[in-house]
Q: What sequence folds into this?
């Protein structure tokens, strides 16, 4: 499978087809048992666990079906969290988190806790948290799975904008054909094999 910089690729397939396994390998959470995985020219299979963690931290953002926000902290504090782990100074953290919230259209909700945000707004906070480290690759696993139709369209239009206007490579797993259509290419898995959409 090949994914070029700047693409928006949707990955589809039934349960057990290999979508999540592929996503975990792309995200450097797992390594393949054979073959090679090249990320920006580096063979990930030759990296140790700490090196893979550094690669994830510096180049990859993750968005999941569950928003995974800390309930009693503000949107701003949730977005700052990855920068806390990087030991970024407080004022720089704040500025970068505000910029990321602005990018997803939520700068006016920075002081709101998760409980005061709609599902779509919570997912946008989760996307801002993924973007705050300036990743070159955004991995989204069923990012619209818990949202209603209107919120789904909002999130997908945001991801398209991030891809087109900011050059972020997006790889999204989805089981919904209408969501997959937002991508520029759809790869379909069946029984651990790619059956269409590969280059």
A:
């Amino acid at each position: 499978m090949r994914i070029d910089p700047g693409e928006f690729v949707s990955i589809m397939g039934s349960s057990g087809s290999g979508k999540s396994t592929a996503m975990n390998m792309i995200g450097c959470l797992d390594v393949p048992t054979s073959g090679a995985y090249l990320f920006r020219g580096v063979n990930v299979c030759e990296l140790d666990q700490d090196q893979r963690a550094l690669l994830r931290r510096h180049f990859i953002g993750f968005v999941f079906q569950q928003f995974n926000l800390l309930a009693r902290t503000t949107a701003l504090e949730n977005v700052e969290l990855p920068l806390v782990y990087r030991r970024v100074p407080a004022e720089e953290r704040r500025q970068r988190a505000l910029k990321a919230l602005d990018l997803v259209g939520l700068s006016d909700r920075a002081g709101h806790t998760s409980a005061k945000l709609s599902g779509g707004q919570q997912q946008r906070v989760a996307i801002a948290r993924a973007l705050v480290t300036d990743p070159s690759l955004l991995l989204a696993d069923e990012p619209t799975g818990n949202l209603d139709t209107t919120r789904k369209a909002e999130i997908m239009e945001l991801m398209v904008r991030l891809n087109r206007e900011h050059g972020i490579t997006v790889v999204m797993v989805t089981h919904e054909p209408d969501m997959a259509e937002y991508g520029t290419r759809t790869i379909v898995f069946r029984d651990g094999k790619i059956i269409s959409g590969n280059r």
Summary: Residues 8-196 form a domain with the Rossmann fold fold (CATH 3.40.50.300). Helices lie at 19-26, 49-59, 75-85, 90-103, 119-131, 149-166, 177-180. The chain is about 40% helix and 15% strand.
